[in-house]
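call fold(seq) -> tokens
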Amino acid sequence: MGTPEALTSQVEEVLRAWVYPERKRLTQLLNAGPLTPLSVARALERLTEAAATTLRVDRASIWRIAPGGQQLECLGLFEQAKQVHSKGQVITQEMAPAYFRALASEQVIVAHDARVDPRTMEFEKGYLTPLGITSLLDAPVFVSGRAVAVVCHEHVGPARRWQAWEELVAGTFAEFVGMVLGARAEPALLQGGQLRSEEENLRALIDASPVPLVVTRASDHKVIFGNRRALGLFEVPEYQMPGMDAGLFWVSQGDRATFLETLLGQGRIDGLEVRLRTATGREFWARMSAEALRFKGEVALLASMVDISAEKQAEENLRNVFALAPVALVASRLKDQVLLEGNQYAAQMFEIEVDAARGRLAPDFWVRPEDRDELRAQVKAHGKVTGFEAELKTSSGRHFWASLSAGVATLDGSPALLVGGIDVTKERAAREALEKSEDTLRTLLDAAPLPLVVTGLDDGVVRYANSRASVMFELPLTQFVGKKAPSFYAKPSDRDAFVEGLRKSGQVDAASVQLQTSTGRPFWALLSAKTLELNGEKVFVVGFTEVTAQKELEQRLWTMATIDGLTGVFNRRHFFELAEAEVTRAGRHGRATSVAMLDLDHFKKINDEHGHSTGDLALKAAAGALKAAVRETDLVARYGGEEFAVLFPDCPLDGARAIMERVREVVEGLRLRDGEKVLPVKLTISIGVAQLEPKESLHSLLKRADQVLYAAKHSGRNRVVVDPVKTWRPPRASPRA
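ret:
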């Protein structure tokens, strides 16, 4: 693995050499006008060549997802070694159902070993092995939010572990393909490779419109044209829009009938608000205008529609916002500053009943009217204001400071200034206290050898912090003061426990807590804190010592103690710890639980004839097949030597046998590789399966599974044998090799 600097250099080189130039070429191509089938084909060829070279794969291809998602059709395949292009191949869903399911649910299919990956292993016999393909990196292509194709990168040679930057590059080339397919002209509209002049003119006018436009025939209501904005609004790929029934986009057919009757009777309709739906079924509000016109000798309808769902939702939200807002909220009419509405938080803040406040002038509650004038001016200039601090007063004359956010909304049909606020008197006092003693306190804090933070015990607001704390939490000191300390804890419950300890004893020593920086980066630290009184307020000073490295070392030690170093599955000791608990739980709740014992056939012969390194490869391959086949809840362990054990919680005998039969078949089909060399080793495995009996111990269950494993060995190996009765006993002579 290279250094971070080397990896960064490699990614930058890929961007400069391939990604940026390809984006520029595509942009020029798309800006040149509608794509012809020939230009689309050439663009796709260019993209497969670039993808193959950039990601260093022998084969790169683009497959179109047919309507209905039942098959894939190859639009272009580039073989780098031969420098040839081909297309036309078809893959049906019946041939690879798991792969089709993955396409529908995953952004990128990363198959480091495609022959055993459950999403791609269906291609092993008929496609991967004959072509020498070992690893796949497939990125779906989306147009208007729908998966329409997939870009495949096929590696030939030893199995390859894809890097994160390679996944990003694959996704980028998928976006490029989406740009081409999204711009493709619909073949049904072509005559002799060119649109007729009348259609060209109409399309140009429609595409130039800043709003979604659709043209439909009045006779059968089929769509003739739709511009790009309409495609995005209705979530329809360009090639599907022509010929669609316009009625499919209406929620209410009654509204549609009224719309058509009015339009055809008057020739025009403006500003009609209706409910429409997209091709995916999402409903939205639209404001429609339409006009009847004559096109190619028949009546057609040209309709524009603007999505006003946000406006409709805003009207509904405004009716609920006063009751639901977690802060004081007040609305005053813009023209005369008369208070129109307020919520209970505002009533408490200003010490006045809501009904009594209505009709009063908003400036009555401001200490300095010029501050309100400044707030109104900023809203007028920027549309909204946040974090505006001002001194206000209650109905009884008590002064306080508030942090305000403001914007303009429509209330009762008139523009209103909507202002939300929270009382920040304490926070402001804390900042002022900091300013008064800033030099002295900063000197003391910065002289400390550890990061230090002073926080209010009751409100959790940071009062002071030193430069080392600023570096640790990746936050400038100017932004640190006044911030809520709980935001630095990965788990709020950890801070609750920490503060509770401070309240009880006045200090906490070396508490291990996971924190996070202002950018969200997690780290572990030991916290020691003590409460004190500062400027008449109870606060606590906390010091931090980062122990992320120690925590990571603990995790590595735990892994070493529980995981078999060769195969990556649990070791025998940890398996017994977990399995004992599962067996106890199964006995308590009466749940079916099974166990399997597995043993590689003729393993000693493999070691003797091919060496222990080959034996290690065989063990790792068998473990990989096991992990890929079992469920997440199943426990897999290397029991000893060439023997493995699997515990199946909540799984009866038949289910465990079916899983083990799949494992046996996969192992039988494995081909060991030493680099690029295929080793002449035939792997098989013998398996014994038993189900837990009432009140039976784990030791007894494993013993029965081991006995039927002997039976599998004696009856010819390479098979799964289950324990039909508890009293079965193996023959006396039973070689295990």
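The first strand starts at residue 59 and ends at 65.
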